[in-house]
């Protein structure tokens, strides 16, 4: 199936010119029509590496008509090995590549002049790696087109190939088997024995359990980190709270001291004798109020002792006076009786 319909039907092919001093021939591309470039391959598990090589072939000339040949299953299995996709699947994959103008099914393994003439091919595009032909002598499949000067080299894309993709599947074979079993395929469809199926299921359950344990461990680790962050935040907040409390407490103590001092001053003012105020005596300072208050209400212990002893002496003196009075009275009574 062709994606482009403007390919001319002219039979003019590119002319080949022998290079001086060499057996190789360099062909010149036609200028009056699109250059017909042919690329061939197996194209199993069609991937972007295939697409890039076809893109290079398509862009090898300003005006290119790209034909892509794909070998059938019989030829491929004989010379290369078993494929994952069938021939029809590989053909259809190529038809959906935007760089391909026409797909040639049942392409030959070795290109000859008859094949080039029948398909009016000007150049053959492929990477420069040698591919063994059908002779078994290790000759390059593209040796003929290289000699006639109709070979256009393309570059391979590193890191991607059909063999690499197959190796990935083989490496993770058990996982792919379990995935397909879970999707409804039977073990007969997958070619798996009963014992192997049970073993795979047990292993997959153990793996899922390990993944859950690991997930829980990660969650616990996240919780621990969150707790540490919250603890640090709590400590910082606690420091701020304590500092704020101490500041408020200090301010409260200062206000309390001020209130106590004002209360004492009011009491001292009330205890001042009114006659001093009536006589026009000036009000004393705060220090004088404190001194008068403490001198009046809270005398020293020595003053109290002196006051006590003075009262005692006064009592004794009064007692002596009474005795003397009694003696005088007694003497007077005696004289009167006589």
TrEMBL record:
Signal peptide, first to last residue: none
Domain of life: Eukaryota
Regions annotated as coiled coil: 199-233
Region spans: Disordered: 1-32, 274-338
Compositionally biased region (Acidic residues): 280-292, 300-324
Purpose: Plays an important role in the biosynthesis of the phospholipid phosphatidylcholine. Catalyzes the formation of CDP-choline.
Official protein name in the record: choline-phosphate cytidylyltransferase
UniProt source species: Raphanus sativus
């Amino acid at each position: 199936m062709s994606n482009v319909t403007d390919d001319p039907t002219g039979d003019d092919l590119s002319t080949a010119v022998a290079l001086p001093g060499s057996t190789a021939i360099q062909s010149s591309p036609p200028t009056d029509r699109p250059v017909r470039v042919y690329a061939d391959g197996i194209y199993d598990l069609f991937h972007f590496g295939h697409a890039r090589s076809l893109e290079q072939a398509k862009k090898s000339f300003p005006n290119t008509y790209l034909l892509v040949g794909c070998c059938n299953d019989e030829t491929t299995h004989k010379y290369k090995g078993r494929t994952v996709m069938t021939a029809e699947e590989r053909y259809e994959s190529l038809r959906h590549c935007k760089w391909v103008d026409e797909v040639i099914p049942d392409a030959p393994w070795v290109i000859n002049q008859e094949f080039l003439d029948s398909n009016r091919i000007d150049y053959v595009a492929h990477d420069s790696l040698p591919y063994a032909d059908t002779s078994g002598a290790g000759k390059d499949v593209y040796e003929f087109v290289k000699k006639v000067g109709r070979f256009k080299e393309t570059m391979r894309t590193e890191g991607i190939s059909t063999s690499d993709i197959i190796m990935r599947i083989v490496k993770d074979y058990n996982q792919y088997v379990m995935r397909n079993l879970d999707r409804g395929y039977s073990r007969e469809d997958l070619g798996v024995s009963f014992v192997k199926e049970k073993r795979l299921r047990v292993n997959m359950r153990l793996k899922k359990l390990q993944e859950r344990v690991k997930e829980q461990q990660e969650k616990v680790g996240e919780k621990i980190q969150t707790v540490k962050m919250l603890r640090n935040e709590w400590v910082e907040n606690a420091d701020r709270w304590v500092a704020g409390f101490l500041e408020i407490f200090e301010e409260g103590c200062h206000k309390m001291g001020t209130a106590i001092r004002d209360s004492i001053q009011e009491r001292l003012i009330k205890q001042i004798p009114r006659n001093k105020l009536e006589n026009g005596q000036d009000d004393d300072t705060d220090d004088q109020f404190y001194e008068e208050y403490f001198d009046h209400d809270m005398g020293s212990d020595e003053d109290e002792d002196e006051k006590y002893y003075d009262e005692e002496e006064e009592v004794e003196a009064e007692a002596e006076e009474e005795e003397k009075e009694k003696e005088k009275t007694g003497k007077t009574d005696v004289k009167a009786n006589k």
